Amino acid sequence: MKYISSSIIFKIIITCIFCVFVFTWKSSTAIAFSFFLFVLLSSILISVISSNNSEKSCLYSLFFTITPFYLIYCLVAHLGYLGNSNFYFYPDQGYFYSVSNNLGELNSFKEIIEACFINRVHFESEGAHFLFGSIAFIANKYFDGNSVLLQSLYVSFFAILSNLFVFKLLKKFLLKSTAKRYTLTFALLTPILFFSPWLLRDVHITFLFSVAIYLTFRKINLKNSILFFAVFTITSQFRMEHSLIILLFFIIHLYYNRQYSSFVKKYWSVFIFFGVGIITIILFTQSKNLFKAVETLDRYELHTVSELNDSGLGSKLYDLPFGIKHLAIAVNSQLTPLPPWALINFHQNIFVILTATTLGVVTIYWSYIFLFLLYSFTTEGIIRKLPKSLFLFLILVVAFLLLNSTNVVVRRIMVIYPVIFLIYAFVKEYKLNEYKKSIIHRRSVISYIFLLVIYILFKVFL
């Protein structure tokens, strides 16, 4: 096939060598089958979402470039787990792995479906439980059984696929070669890499968000509307409060198509009427789950404040007046953890240190992106120059961060990072000349160094 170049073939070989290494090391038929299934389904997905052979070649190149990095990082994280004999980051992983084992021991898929979606024995996050449980069930029934590494690999698979949709999103606003370069940067230097191996639901939700954002800029038709509804439904089974953002993506989808479709423009009021009506019906029918989500957020805030009571500056933000508190916490969320070396403990094994270092690297880069955008908006008036669709996305991002200020955890808010990164890439490529970019770059770097110095002085003298 013409779109498979020699460089792609080389990347395929590297990926295969890594897969053979892991299979030989673990001697796991479940892992071997999962690698094969992942590459097969990813190839099908690339064929479906590609507009032409040139784009298909680009997606294949991205896929086989990103995949080895994510799989190696997954392996490093797993070696850290083996060295500690526990989940050294995010104890929630132990809960999800335990649930996967319990569901994997049931007698049939029907029993898993009944437990998760009919009896709802876990009360929330049933989509995540179903997915983890299904993987364990298939591994137990047809292969050599469930394992932490197996579950971790599937989370990494979703993280890898998220980046393909990020490329499609960036390509809507950037040249293909530029979009490819930015996608590689997003894949390897943002928090999605750090969180890619953990047995949590956040990567799955990020994948669903990346699909929804991609659909936002697609032509409005019955197929895409059904896909939007499917993404909303699935997301609601992972985290209800996040699924509501999908509905807002759909509103932006309508607005975006209004600019390019005379039919949508002519019947705009009808679309909005039905759109608002559908959202109202969904909110009404899901009111019980929404109340649970609000109660959960309240518990998160109490838990967060309790954890921060002795942590210095972070705890002080929660003492600020209403409004100012939310804004300060939202800003702080884009710089967390501060300092970036906060989780590095040289008394841990080398693999734990490597994963903590990865967090430090992606934190530094994401802080730079945030500061770059902040200076662009405040000193250059870039907000007024954004396309209306991106301006609406920016409003949505700000609202999302403010609403999540009750419990600002990076893994919960990174679902919106593809949008922030899109705005960053668009501003940097098209709205600033080289001179202004260099000035904002220097300001961003100096500001971040200044924050680190302030932190060190705070720890030394207070």
From TrEMBL:
The chain crosses the membrane at residues 7-25, 31-50, 62-81, 148-170, 182-200, 226-255, 267-285, 350-374, 386-403, 409-427, 439-458. It comes from the Bacteria. Keywords: Membrane, Transmembrane, Transmembrane helix. This is Dolichyl-phosphate-mannose-protein mannosyltransferase. It comes from Psychroflexus aurantiacus. The lineage of its organism: Bacteria, Pseudomonadati, Bacteroidota, Flavobacteriia, Flavobacteriales.
